[in-house]
Write a structure and sequence with these properties.
Blueprint (H helix, E strand, L loop, with lengths): L5 H10 L15 H10 L19 H11 L22 H9 L19 H11 L18 H9 L15 H19 L3 E7 L2 E6 L9 E6 L2 E2 L4 E4 L5 E5 L7 E8 L6 E7 L4 E5 L4 E6 L5 E7 L1 E4 L12 E4 L4 E4 L4 E5 L12 E7 L6 E9 L4 E11 L15 E9 L17 E5 L18 E5 L5 E5 L12 E9 L6 E7 L5 E6 L6 E2 L3 E4 L1 E5 L8 H4 L7 E4 L6 E6 L2 E10 L5 E9 L5 E9 L4 E7 L4 E3 L3 E5 L3 E5 L12 H4 E8 L5 E3 L9 E2 L1 E4 L5 E5 L9 E11 L6 E3 L8 E3 L3 E9 L6 E4 L6 E2 L11 E4 L1 E4 L5 E3 L5 E5 L4 E5 L7 E5 L12 E10 L6 E9 L5 E6 L2 E3 L2 E7 L2 E4 L1 H4 L1 E2 L12 E5 L10 E5 L8 E4 L3 E2 L6 E7 L7 E7 L4
Parallel strand pairs: 10-17, 26-33, 35-46, 35-51, 48-56, 60-67
Antiparallel strand pairs: 1-2, 2-6, 3-4, 3-7, 5-6, 7-8, 9-12, 10-11, 11-15, 13-16, 14-15, 16-17, 18-19, 19-22, 20-23, 21-22, 23-24, 25-28, 27-31, 29-32, 30-31, 32-33, 34-37, 36-42, 38-41, 38-43, 39-40, 39-42, 43-46, 44-45, 47-50, 49-54, 50-51, 52-55, 53-54, 55-56, 57-62, 58-59, 59-60, 61-65, ...
Helix pairs in contact: 2-7, 3-4, 5-6
Length: about 1000
């Protein structure tokens, strides 16, 4: 190749799009591994026999093909027409024309391309150096090389694009091309594509480092160990959005972890991290001086030696490490909580004075980790330096003047004595505290606590990891509506040292000026919980919806009254945890309820009168949400959940077991049957045949059978459906028409016509959508596959859906890896599922689409197709749902308006992964395939009426609650997906 091609080649390199960014995370591969990766990306192919033949030379035609693939060039055989020596190389004409047109390769003149000619190493080096616009550099080049190529070879070697050789004039082997192409691709990806590196950040942490900032809202992670999903409990991003730390509640188990990052690049990024068991790596004693402690006679009675123990990730494990100690001056007692050992000086021994040297030895049994250090006795330790690391909010809030208090805000500090040892809170609190701390603007932010006689209050073990020293901030109780501003906090060591200042910016926050309660959007019934709409506007005319601004404030919030705090309350919106909503539980009586709201900042009030109606009951059956016709020979199952009812106010009632079927049943009567038969039970048998049936739960059902032995022509039957109480008595509704409290019987009966037709009378057939993907566990057999119903039905001109006999149509799979199965009962639908052989996926794809075929046995032989989607993506929790649970017609859990009520016995015990017991027993978890999965992950309890309940728990931990407890639960599944937050009240829900 000639130097004149460099510009064109650089342009081609700059505009080409290299394939999957995941390619950049293959790890340390040998040449064959790199070849396989290139084949997977569609860049390389084997020789005619399909083998790699890495030891063979590379021809000019082969190089043309590789360049075309790498740079995404369009094949152009016409441009190869300038060559007259391509006989026998017609397979490469399109590639040769492409690289010729792009200026990447040229012939030898006189129409000669020499497709079978060999490419030398120095020629390959020249191409790559020009592509990356590297400066020629011949220094250090050894071996045989043409004078014109020395600079290219040197630059390529230094850039890692080719490997050092003895002779660069020799033909390049296919292995050389693999190495250079792979390295070039890696280099290009680093410059243009988002790539990722994966490693361990700690005993409980994995780390993903991206080459560029990413959209953290779009990026998700899937982690597995030995094929089993082990997704993190928490993901923390760096400020530059380039690094994500995946955190776990417990230490990572030894093994190889596969991490997949989705949404960071055009394709998934993946990598592997090998984890070893946590081990102690070193013991450190930072200072050469051990501060002393004096007795009442000012004699040295003990000295402290401060130390740290670190694991292989350089994490502080002092508190859990077991170190044995000895010293040359006295007995040693270990105090790992304060990261120090205490050496007692024998009483009356005045030999040990300031400056006296001694040795201390520390070792950890069963390891080779030890320390031996010569130290000297120092004077009493005093706080000397202060470093403010950050302003920290335990609740994740932003500091603003509207907050009720600042109790959750801390300045995280690193305080050290004159010897560089850490200083704990015990030496800083109270009148003898070793730091003077004051605020330049105490009206905005103060540090003096009323409960400590106006001294600052320091706390150990605060911060995001629970291991920081923190100064708690204070809000002035007499503070009015303040503007935003700055308060400078000054730390001054009392016994000498460095003065430190730190500026705290306090935002004004949203201050509510105008507030108005608005009428509910529907009738309010006795005992019902409803949402009360509102309008809130700040002083700038902006709407205010933030929960903290509306509730957790002593100057700009809105106070509600008129009912008890339990009955009228602010809550966080389950759909948006930052948004405040007003909930009202109506009293169990009829009549007017008066509500009041008071905007604290402006003094504005708002009143609302709500007329509470009698408790709602099902007054009218409205719809039958299922097929309402049968072809002769078909069976139609109708479940209780398919029948819908309205209450006496015209509002749709929730049709579930916990509220509706706990109190009511549906009575179903078959009249004017037209030969249609009704069965109550799991089989079609005379003993189950009936004309009147009761549906007692949402899954309870009847079956209608259009028996060909009894029916030969079209007809219409009638189903009469009504609501009755659990004891079979009629439902009663207040007679509003006479405006009195006399109840009268309302037995609302809805008649539904059921059409019976012949198969050939149906002209339109449809297949219901298969709404979720099928899971293909070909790569992760520990997860079970799932199946989906194939619901085939007919449709009449008026829209009536007709159930078909399952022996009058057939369902076939048109997709590799997918099969169709038929239930063991005649009324069971066909099902589609994966067969264990694996679907055919594209390169770097985990989802593929296909079709199923349905053949109708009618005179027209109707054929239908339906698209299905199969995926091998790891099942992860995507849907969290919490609902009331009942057993034997009694509540296990009652869930209404984000409040879960259950007994202490029901909630206490193991936070179970499955079943309907324990704290998460009312929570159901489904994956992206609509399959119910075990609960995994963490639970955080906050705002508990008993402080002992507050904290972080994992599924599998045990917890004990007692009647009267109230608290908020935030459940985060193991995948680190969207959390579910709900309130809990411990009492009998029945």
């Amino acid at each position: 190749m000639k130097k004149s091609l460099s510009a064109l080649l650089s342009v081609a390199m700059s505009v080409s799009i290299f394939a999957s960014a995941a390619f950049g995370a293959e790890g340390n591969l040998d040449t064959k591994g790199k070849y396989d990766a290139l084949v997977k990306e569609g860049i390389f192919e084997g020789m005619e026999d399909g083998q790699a033949h890495l030891d063979q030379t590379m021809t000019r035609a082969q190089l043309a093909k590789i360049l075309t693939k790498v740079f995404k060039l369009s094949e152009d055989a016409s441009s190869a027409g300038v060559y007259n020596d391509l006989t026998g190389a017609g397979w490469a004409a399109g590639y040769i024309g492409a690289v010729t047109k792009a200026g990447m390769m040229e012939g030898h003149g006189n129409g000669v391309f020499a497709p079978s000619g060999e490419v030398t190493l120095e020629q390959l080096a020249a191409v790559l150096v020009r592509a990356f616009k590297l400066q020629e550099d011949s220094s250090g080049v050894t071996g045989t090389v043409s004078p014109w190529a020395a600079g290219y070879v040197g630059a390529a070697i230094k850039a890692g694009l080719i490997q050092a050789k003895d002779d660069y004039t020799k033909p390049a082997l296919r292995s050389d091309l693999v190495e250079s192409t792979y390295t070039s691709w890696q280099r290009y990806l680093e410059q243009t594509e988002t790539t990722a590196k994966f490693d361990a950040a700690g005993a409980k942490k994995l780390r993903v480092t991206f080459s560029k900032a990413v959209d953290t809202e779009k990026v998700t992670f899937e982690v597995s160990r030995d094929g089993v999903a082990v997704n993190p409990n928490k993901v923390t991003w760096s400020d530059d959005k380039k690094t994500a730390v995946l955190e776990y509640n417990t230490n990572l188990v030894k093994g190889e972890y596969t991490i997949v990052a989705k949404g960071a690049a055009s394709k998934d990024l993946s990598g592997k991290v090998s984890i070893e068991d946590e081990r102690v790596a070193k013991i450190e004693i930072a200072s050469d001086t051990a501060p002393s402690v004096r007795d009442e006679n000012y004699q040295i009675e003990k000295v402290y030696v401060y130390y740290k123990v670190y694991n292989q990730y350089n994490e502080d494990v002092t508190k859990t490490a077991s170190v044995s100690w000895s010293s040359s001056i006295g007995p040693v007692s270990d105090d790992p909580t304060n990261s120090r050992v205490e050496i007692d000086i024998p009483q009356g021994n005045y030999y040990y004075q300031i400056g006296t040297q001694f040795t201390i030895n520390g070792w950890i049994s069963g390891t080779d980790v030890s320390i031996n250090k010569t130290m000297k006795i120092g004077d009493v330790a005093r706080a000397s330096t202060v470093e403010v690391k950050q302003l920290y909010s335990a609740d994740g809030k932003t500091l603003n003047v509207g907050l009720k208090d600042y109790s959750g805000f801390y300045l995280l500090l690193d305080v050290k004595d004159q010897y560089g040892n850490p200083v704990k809170a015990e030496k800083l609190n109270g009148p003898n505290g070793e730091l003077s701390v004051y605020s330049s603007n105490p009206a905005l932010v103060d540090v003096r606590h009323a409960n400590t006689n106006s001294y600052p209050e320091f706390f150990d073990n605060v911060g995001p990891d629970g291991n920081d020293l923190g100064l708690q901030l204070v809000k002035n109780e007499n503070m009015g509506i303040a503007q935003e501003g700055t308060a400078t906090i000054t730390f001054s060591p009392k016994y000498g040292g460095q003065v430190t200042t730190y500026d705290i910016q306090v935002k004004k926050g949203a201050i509510v000026k105008d507030f108005k309660l608005l009428p509910p959007t529907k009738t309010v019934s006795a005992g019902e919980t409803v949402t009360i709409p509102y309008s809130a506007v700040d002083y700038d005319g902006n709407p205010v919806t933030d929960y903290d601004a509306l509730v957790d404030s002593n100057i700009n919030g809105v106070q509600l009254s008129g009912l008890s705090s339990d009955a009228l309350r602010w809550e966080k919106d389950p759909a948006d945890n930052k948004k405040g909503v007003i909930k009202m539980t109506a009293p169990n009586r009829t009549g007017d309820v008066y509500l009041h709201a008071y905007a604290k900042a402006s003094g504005q009030t708002s009143q609302l009168v709500i007329n509470v109606k009698e408790a709602k009951v099902p007054a009218a059956v409205t719809t039958l949400d299922t097929k309402t016709g049968l072809a002769i020979g078909a069976i139609l199952e109708i479940k209780g959940e398919k029948i819908k009812s309205d209450d006496q106010f015209g509002h749709a009632m929730t049709n579930d077991d916990a509220s509706f079927f706990r109190n009511y049943n549906y009575k179903v009567e078959l009249t004017n049957s037209g030969g249609l038969e009704m069965y109550k039970g799991n089989v079609i048998a005379d003993t189950y045949k009936t004309t009147v049936a009761y549906l007692t739960s949402k899954d309870d059902s009847i079956k209608l059978f259009a028996d060909p032995a009894n029916i030969s022509s079209t007809s219409t039957a009638t189903l009469k459906v009504s609501v009755v109480n659990k004891d079979g008595s009629d439902v009663k509704v207040r007679n509003d028409r006479t405006n009195n409290d006399v109840n009268y019987t309302v037995r609302s009966v809805k008649e539904f016509p059921i059409r019976i037709v012949k198969l050939n009378d149906i002209k339109t057939f449809e297949i219901a959508d298969i709404s979720h993907k099928l899971y293909d566990n070909i790569e992760q057999p520990q997860f079970s596959v799932n199946s989906k119903d194939v619901d085939v039905y007919g449709k009449l001109g008026d829209g009536t859906k007709i159930a078909l006999p399952t022996d009058q149509y057939w369902v076939e799979s048109q997709m590799k890896g997918v099969k169709v199965v038929r239930g063991d009962n005649v009324w069971n639908l066909y099902k589609v599922t994966t067969d264990g052989t694996g679907a055919q996926y594209g390169i770097n794809e985990d989802t593929v689409k296909g079709t199923i075929l349905v053949r109708i046995n009618n005179d027209d032989g109707t054929l239908l197709t339906k698209e299905i989607e199969v995926s091998k993506a790891t099942p992860v929790p995507t849907v969290l749902k919490i609902e009331s649970k009942v057993a034997n017609n009694a509540y296990l859990y009652k869930y209404e308006d984000n409040l879960l009520t259950a007994s202490a016995a029901q909630l206490s015990g193991v936070i179970a992964a499955t079943g309907q017991t324990g704290l998460l027993g009312a929570v159901d978890v489904k994956d992206q395939y609509d399959v119910t999965r075990d609960r995994t992950g963490s639970v955080v309890i906050t705002q508990a009426s008993r402080a002992a309940l507050n904290g972080k728990y994992s599924v599998g931990d045990s917890i004990t609650v007692q009647t009267g407890d109230t608290f908020t639960v935030t459940y985060t599944p193991g995948s680190g997906g969207k959390a579910l937050t709900f309130r809990v009240k411990v009492e009998d829900p029945n």
